[in-house]
Structure formats: structure tokens, C-alpha cells
């Protein structure tokens, strides 16, 4: 399978602090990548480089065969704080990317918005403002808004970190369903090893200076049941790799 994202010899520093030094990484189309690693190692920075929010000082990032030198329309980013505006209803928030895009008729916008509201199961709160929504509902609204332009690349920074355990599991399940439906390439940052194993096809264990390992999850149906021994074994394996990486820093 051809790489959808190619990072070649990328170096990035902030002032004197080197975050990445000649990082090379290839990510495949349609897969979900979970980035996990110690605090401050550069997980969010990597996500921002993939989004085109920041540019490396050396090396390059190519997405879908094109050199990335600015943000792309087909890349969507789900921010940690979700970025919902207090003055927008759910309906307005979900529709906003279509309005900004400007290439859709009123009827097309209405249809697409309805489809996303249904897909995320938030039709019943379409007239609510953010302060009237639960944490899980807010996450669904933000996801619907992120996906309405059908991105080929979805980037998410700690998408479930603010949620309670039950809501987190529900949102993780919603994400898996959306991934099945839209087949986009997804890259997300998490601190939660179980989440990385549950959602990721491939886990990027990031160590300092951009050293990393790729851990391929086994067959999805083996991993998908969290109660299986295979799932626990995989979590244990990821935890070990994090420990080994920390020791060799
Ligand atoms: N705007 C900035 N100015 C100065 N240093 C920064 C800035 N943004 C990030 N850094 C530094 O870059 C390094 C990587 O930051 P980044 O947020 O990517 O780490 P992270 O792995 O996502 O951390 P965490 O898990 O704590 O969120 C950190 O040491 C951080 O202090």
C-alpha cells in the first residue's frame, strides 16, 4: 500500500529545543494511527506539522502526494478544547464548514447537515447551545462539524481526555463506526494506552528527538473486544515499549 503521508528527514526545533531531528515516517491511507508517548515529547507538535499549522525548519511532509506548505481543505483537525462557539446552536456549528466553504446550495447544506446530525445521533439537540450539551454531546457536535466536509485526513488531539469513562467508551465506539463509514486516514494523540490499542490500527510510540516505534495491532476483531487476552497483551506490549523508550533517553 502506498504512503498517504510521507515525512522525510524532518527537523523541528523551538528556540534551542530540538523536538524532531531528521524524522522519517510513512503513514498509510485509510488507517488509524494513535500517537502515544511521554509528556512534552512532541505529540501535539507532530499533529500540528501534519496539519500544516507549522512548518519544519528542515525536511518535508507530503500528504496525498502533495508537499505540505499550508493547511489543506481535506484535512480536518479536532482540537482538545473542541472549539465550539457559545453563540452557535448544534445545527449552526455542524453546518459552519459548509457555509465557510461557500460551494454548496442551501438545500445541499441542509441535507448534509441532517446526515451528519443523524450519523452522530444529535438530531434531538440540534437547537441547543454548547452550555445545554453534555460532554459526550459536545464531542459528537465537534466530530460532526469536523467530518461534514468529508476530510481524507482527520487529526485529533486527545479527543476523549475530558470525558468520563462511560462517555469515553461511547465516543470511541462512535469513532470506530465513523471510521468504517468514511474510511479516512486518522491520526490522534492520546495518553491512554487502552484507547490507543482499541482505536489504532497502528500505534506510534514516540520517544525523545522523534525516535519512535510503530506497533501494528493484530486483526481488528481480536483487538476490538476489550475483554480479550489479546487486548491486554497488546496494552502490556505498548506499556513495555514506552518504558524501554524512557530508559534509553
Ligand atoms: N509555543 C511554544 N513555545 C515554546 N515551547 C513550546 C511551544 N509549544 C510546545 N513547546 C515545547 O515543545 C515540546 C513538545 O510539546 P508538545 O505539546 O508537542 O508535547 P506533547 O508530547 O504533546 O506533550 P503533552 O503530552 O504534555 O501534551 C515541549 O517541551 C513544549 O514545552
From TrEMBL:
Q: Cite a single GO MF annotation.
A: ATP hydrolysis activity
The answer to whether the entry has keyword Manganese is no
Q: Give all residue intervals belonging to the ABC transporter domain.
A: 5-233
Q: Which PROSITE patterns match?
A: ABC_TRANSPORTER_1, ABC_TRANSPORTER_2
Q: Which UniProt keywords apply?
A: ATP-binding, Nucleotide-binding, Transport
Q: What is this protein called?
A: ABC transporter ATP-binding protein
Q: Name one Pfam family in it.
A: ABC_tran
Amino acid at each position: 500500500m502506498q504512503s498517504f503521508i510521507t515525512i522525510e528527514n524532518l527537523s523541528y526545533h523551538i528556540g534551542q529545543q530540538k523536538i524532531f531531528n531528521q524524522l522519517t515516517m510513512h503513514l498509510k491511507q485509510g488507517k488509524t494511527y494513535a500517537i502515544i508517548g511521554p509528556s512534552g515529547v512532541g505529540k501535539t507538535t507532530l499533529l500540528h506539522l501534519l496539519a500544516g499549522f507549522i512548518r519544519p525548519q528542515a525536511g518535508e511532509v507530503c500528504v496525498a502526494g502533495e508537499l505540505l506548505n499550508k493547511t489543506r481543505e481535506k484535512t480536518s483537525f479536532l482540537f482538545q478544547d473542541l472549539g465550539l462557539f457559545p453563540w452557535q446552536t448544534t445545527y449552526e456549528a455542524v453546518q459552519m464548514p459548509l457555509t465557510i466553504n461557500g460551494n454548496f446550495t442551501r438545500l445541499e447544506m441542509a441535507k448534509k447537515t441532517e446526515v451528519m446530525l443523524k450519523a452522530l445521533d444529535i438530531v434531538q439537540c440540534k437547537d441547543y447551545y454548547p452550555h445545554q450539551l453534555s460532554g459526550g454531546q459536545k464531542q459528537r457536535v465537534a466530530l460532526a462539524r469536523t467530518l461534514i466536509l468529508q476530510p481524507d485526513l482527520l487529526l485529533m488531539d486527545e479527543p476523549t481526555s475530558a470525558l468520563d469513562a462511560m462517555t469515553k467508551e461511547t465516543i470511541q465506539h462512535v469513532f470506530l463506526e465513523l471510521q468504517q463509514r468514511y474510511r479516512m486516514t486518522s491520526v490522534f494523540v492520546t495518553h491512554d494506552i487502552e484507547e490507543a490499542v482499541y482505536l489504532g490500527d497502528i500505534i506510534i510510540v514516540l520517544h525523545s528527538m522523534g525516535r519512535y516505534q510503530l506497533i501494528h495491532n493484530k486483526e481488528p476483531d481480536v483487538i476490538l473486544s476489550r475483554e480479550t487476552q489479546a487486548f491486554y497483551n497488546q496494552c502490556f506490549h505498548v506499556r513495555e515499549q514506552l518504558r524501554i523508550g524512557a530508559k534509553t533517553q
